[in-house]
Design the sequence.
């Protein structure tokens, strides 16, 4: 029928087109996979090329498969999207069996990389070379295709890398955060000796956080000397907390010369915590000129905590202008609040209070408005309250615009309370600023002025408080007219209030209730979706209930899905509950199944956990090991505990080792507890 007809397919889809595809194609597995893993909107190329890539991977020669798996592990364990040739060469050896390794030719790496680079139907090859742009240092790097990254995360979920991988990561990954991430992956798999080497390498590259983790490893083994050495190196690399901890220890032990040497070396390397401590010590020693030089260095830093501490020092010395400059440079919420406290003069005080409010610190502006009100300056108080209301309203609109679902039950009070005004002194949308403004206007200008303020907020999109006030005054006709107007404009809260009241009004038919709830759901009201789900389930329309729950979960609102799963579980519909959990969107499925497995007991739990293991859910082996151990299935428990450790969940195997540490003549469990595992999964030697 379409012979001779061309169909235009864009090279790449726009952001809105991608969002529309996610909405209408959420249950198409292939499309969902393409949307999750495609780059720059190139969906068509991904759908066309992915099967061909998978076929090439399955048919790859051993050496090519080895470099691909090394790249897979680098990306899934360390986030290393780009890896160098040297890394691939060093890491790949451990992915080859003895026969395959012996059969390698002289040009094995070049041949393997040539195989992986071949593109398939508009999609990059399995592993492709990245051309360096001018001014960048990315030359000689290789990138795994997105689809193969996805395959690797599933296929290798339970596979621990060989020793060559950890060694290559330590020697050839160039950035400290990547090396540290691989170290964390090693520690999660109880490969603590490998983790220690990786953390040390990351620290040597300047990764301060890796030093913190390495100190913990040494402290767990009561290796005080090694821990102290790493603490000092980490402090010199810029860790202020470690520096302060070491200085405290040195001063307690009267090691004054060592303390001064440490702080001077760290300060000389440009670390602001050390510079601040050194400046303070020099002031105490009467060396004011040298202290000022170091304070000048502190003033150039960008750490808000250090700048606030510097401002404290300046304030104590009476240099209020300098303190203000330091606090303004810090610029965070606390600093702006402290800056407001230092302000002098009406104009400066008000300006500082506004700046603090803009930074998220409301206290100065609130205090200023309340002070003006207490002093009888009603106009000033009203102006300040009004400014705060305007900011609050702008933030509210921004929050709602960024939500897939508006949750009227979030926070300390819910809109369900609002439906019964007598129990809610401050409904959602009515901030302290609005409440106090209206009370002030009521008291000084009359209720009409308070109504005007609420009306202005209502015209800006927030009519909650005004509608409530009208009903409290028994002005039902005016309140209903306001609500009807907001309903006509599609305001979410109004649609939800209208639907909620209809559901609880016996005079309203079910068809009308359903229509109103669906309108509220279309307006992104999460509670409307939840109520539609509940009503469908109660009416025996399970398929419809499923669709509402899945619709909400796909947009991040998971409460309906879990409540439906749990209600079916409690009703003895175990199979239906589990099937619904498995149908959850990819981002919610693992969470729902894990929660369900925790609540189950006996055979139902074991069956679910085995299924989850088959589907490569990383948490499942460890939980299954615990259940099997409790059931007396000790050999299977150990098998799954080891699988869990290989997948990055060492807890089950550690707990098993604690329980079995006195078993057996070879003392392997004690060795595990002391030293962890080798890359191959055997007890490691002391390190």
Sequence:
């Amino acid at each position: 029928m379409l012979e001779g007809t061309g169909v235009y397919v864009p090279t790449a889809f726009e952001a809105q087109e991608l969002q529309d595809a996610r909405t209408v194609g959420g249950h198409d597995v292939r499309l969902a996979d393409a949307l999750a893993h495609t780059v720059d909107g190139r969906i068509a190329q991904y759908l066309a090329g992915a099967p061909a890539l998978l076929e090439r991977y399955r048919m790859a020669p051993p050496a090519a498969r080895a470099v691909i798996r090394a790249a897979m592990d680098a990306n899934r364990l360390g986030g290393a999207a780009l890896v160098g040739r040297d890394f691939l060469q060093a890491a790949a050896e451990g992915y080859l069996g003895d026969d395959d390794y012996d059969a390698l030719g002289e040009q094995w790496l070049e041949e393997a990389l040539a195989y992986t680079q071949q593109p398939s139907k508009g999609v990059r090859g399995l592993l492709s070379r990245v051309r360096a742009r001018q001014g960048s240092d990315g030359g000689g790097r290789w990138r795994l295709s997105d689809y193969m990254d996805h395959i690797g995360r599933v296929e290798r979920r339970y596979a621990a890398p060989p020793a060559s991988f950890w060694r290559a990561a330590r020697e050839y990954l160039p950035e400290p955060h990547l090396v540290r991430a691989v170290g964390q992956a090693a520690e999660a798999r109880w490969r603590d000796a490998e983790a220690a080497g990786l953390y040390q390498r990351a620290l040597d590259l300047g990764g301060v956080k890796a030093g913190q983790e390495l100190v913990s490893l040494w402290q767990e083994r009561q290796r005080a000397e090694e821990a102290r050495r790493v603490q000092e190196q980490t402090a010199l690399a810029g860790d202020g907390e470690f520096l302060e901890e070491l200085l405290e220890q040195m001063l307690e032990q009267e090691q004054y010369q060592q303390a001064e040497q440490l702080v001077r070396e760290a300060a000389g390397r440009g670390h602001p915590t050390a510079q601040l401590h050194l400046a303070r010590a020099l002031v105490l020693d009467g060396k004011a000129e040298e202290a000022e030089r170091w304070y000048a260095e502190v003033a150039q830093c960008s750490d808000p905590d250090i700048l606030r501490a510097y401002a404290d020092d300046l304030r104590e010395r009476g240099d209020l202008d300098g303190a203000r400059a330091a606090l303004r440079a810090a610029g965070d919420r606390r600093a702006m609040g402290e800056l407001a406290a230092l302000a002098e003069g009406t104009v400066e005080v008000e300006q500082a209070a506004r700046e603090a409010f803009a930074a998220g610190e409301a206290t100065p502006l609130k205090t200023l408005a309340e002070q003006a009100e207490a002093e009888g300056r009603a106009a000033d108080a009203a102006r300040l309250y009004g400014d705060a209301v305007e900011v609050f309203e702008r933030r509210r609109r921004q929050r709602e615009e960024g939500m897939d679902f508006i949750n009227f039950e979030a926070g300390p009070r819910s809109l369900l309370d609002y439906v019964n005004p007598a129990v809610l002194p401050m409904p959602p949308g009515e901030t302290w600023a609005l409440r106090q403004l209206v009370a002030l206007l009521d008291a000084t200008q009359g209720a009409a002025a308070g109504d005007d303020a609420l009306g202005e907020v209502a015209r800006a999109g927030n009519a909650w408080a005004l509608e409530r006030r009208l009903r409290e005054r028994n002005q039902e006709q005016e309140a209903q007219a306001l609500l009807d107007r907001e309903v006509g404009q599609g305001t979410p809260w109004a649609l939800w209030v209208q639907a909620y009241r209809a559901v609880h009004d016996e005079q309203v038919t079910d068809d009308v209730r359903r229509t109103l709830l669906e309108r509220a759901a279309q307006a992104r009201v999460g509670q409307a979706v939840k109520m539609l789900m509940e009503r469908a389930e109660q009416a025996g329309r399970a398929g419809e209930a499923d669709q509402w729950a899945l619709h909400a979960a796909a947009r991040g609102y998971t409460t309906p899905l879990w409540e439906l799963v749990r209600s079916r579980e409690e009703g003895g519909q175990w199979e239906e509950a589990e099937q619904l959990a498995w149908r959850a969107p990819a981002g919610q499925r693992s969470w729902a199944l894990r929660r369900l497995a925790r609540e189950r007991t006996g055979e139902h739990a074991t069956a679910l956990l085995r299924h989850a293991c088959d589907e490569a859910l990383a948490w499942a082996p460890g939980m299954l090991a615990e259940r099997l151990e409790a059931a007396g299935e000790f050999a299977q428990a150990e098998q799954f505990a080891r699988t869990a450790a290989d997948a990055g969940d060492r807890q089950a195997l550690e707990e098993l080792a604690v329980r079995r540490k006195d078993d057996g003549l070879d003392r392997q469990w004690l060795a595990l507890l002391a030293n962890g595992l080798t890359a191959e999964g055997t007890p490691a030697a002391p390190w």
